[in-house]
Amino acid sequence: MKVLIVGSGGREHAIAASAVKSTRLEKLYCAPGNAGIAEYAQCVDIGVMEFDKLVAFAKKESIDLVIVGMDEPLAGGLVDEMGAAGIRTFGPRKNAAILEGSKAFSKDLMRKYNIPTAGYRNFTDAGKAFEYLETAKFPIVLKADGLAMGKGVLICGAPEEARAGIREIMLDKKFGSAGNEMVIEEFMTGREVSVLSFVDGKTIKTMTSAQDHKRAGDGDTGLNTGGMGTFSPSPFYTKEVEDFCRRHIYQATVDAMAAEGRAFKGVIFFGLMLTAEGPKVLEYNARFGDPEAQVVLPRMKTDLIEVMEACIDGTLDQVELEFEDNAAVCVVLASDGYPVKYDKGFEITGLEEFKKHEGYYCFHAGTRFDGNRIVTSGGRVLGITAKGKDLKEARENAYAATKWVQFENKYMRHDIGKAIDEAEGCD
Considering the entire predicted model, what is its pTM? Predict the structure, then answer.
């Protein structure tokens, strides 16, 4: 098969690294790709929102399967465009990608179908949002309705902070049109867990669990980012939690989308909060999480392309998902100053070390070629992932591997997976 991946980040690099293990693969392309993906795929200089060019390329090269990795082209309807041209594509259509594309839609869906989530109100009028704060209980969570690169969520501890957040989202349009509508949500406490799943419209198969670290600084301080590191599996995702989620969240979401005439095919990311009242949905994503994919996919034994084909064909019930009995930890190497302001264009050295060690991965997110050199080109630069027999060993291995790579203004958190140490005795 000829396969085209659409995207340019660490998630797409992880997808590419998994896809090349498939016996079905003949040739791999990526648009636009990055310096790391170029090791596996022929990178094509087409942007992820240039739908006409992407469709034309897929037709010209007789692409057998397109994998859409990123949220923006999914929400924009790239899968629909490819389908109209007769090109098999993995990912939800536009009317199903709204599960991530509109937080107001997803919250209303959960309320309608009794899927556990935090209490909330939707607002299209800033004045009414300000009024709501007068009787709201703090802390409180503000969410821009649309896509905001993982940064459109503000946790506010006091009314003045929330008023500033409403102005930022709805009036100043910090996140553009994503802030035309806003969700104000009760603040939930507990452990966060991420569960990725394959869906074929009716059947859902969950992958191994993971946990992300969103905040920029150690100790979960600083601004929200696209993710500073992950570990898999989560020791807090017990059999009891899994059973509850299967009964009340996972299949219920798939069935709800089908009932709404929005049958979902692709990956649903369940962001869960394990509260004192039980697991609740924190958020949905309509694609692989990033950097969650960087710890989940390296542990997956099942042929990725075969699973994706089954999702498209509606035969996922015939596929057995298998994962290695080990653990993985990913530490993101970022540009100092991310997610606000940072310099780029610095040469990256030490990348060759990863070819010498089995079970270690360096997933590129913000890199590009500058002649023969690989240089930084984004806020999140690399995802350093390592496996281990258990989470503690994987964490030690990942942090050891971060020392192999150097670039000016390199920054990382030093407590990724620290919760592992607190979970001793968890099953």
Answer: 0.95
